[in-house]
Amino acid sequence: MPHNGSKPPDTDQIKELLKKNKRSMQLLLSACAGCTLCAESCFLFMSKGKDPKYMPSYKVLNSLGTLYRKKGKITPEQLEEMKNLLWKNCQLCERCYCPMGIDIPKMLAFARRILRSQGIDGIYDVSLGESDEGSE
Ligand code: SF4
Ligand code: SF4
Known about the structure:
By secondary structure, the chain is an all-alpha fold. It has a single domain (11-117), classed as Fumarate Reductase Iron-sulfur Protein, Chain B, domain 2. Helix content is 47%, strand content 0%. The protein has 7 helices and no strands. It has helices spanning 11-20, 22-31, 43-47, 56-61, 64-69, 76-88, 104-117. Helix 6 crosses helix 7 (104-117). The relative contact order is 0.21. It binds iron/sulfur cluster (2 copies).
């Protein structure tokens, strides 16, 4: 699907999707202690000079976290930033680990799903695999 980031985001549609997993996702988001222990389990973080923008918690909090915080009211520019975080900065390899039991890949996959609902899809020249089809 072509990238469609210039179209105004459909807030109602985003809100509907956010509602589906609101309880579990907000619980996970609020459980994040910001300890950054998940960082070194991400090979991209390690291979990009430990750039914070590749940290698993950063990617979750600045995509799904922002979507919930703003109740779906986001700008095309914010969606574009999320696209980079969710595809360019993450391959959804599911290898990141949170000692608090937060399922980071599940949250990243859900954020991708929301972006796809807005016609925004992956950056396939740097993303090697997709494993979130049909997941929450
Ligand atoms: S996701 Fe887990 S490991 Fe990463 S910062 Fe949050 S609590 Fe710490
Ligand atoms: S799923 Fe994303 S954040 Fe987690 S280890 Fe893989 S590339 Fe890093």
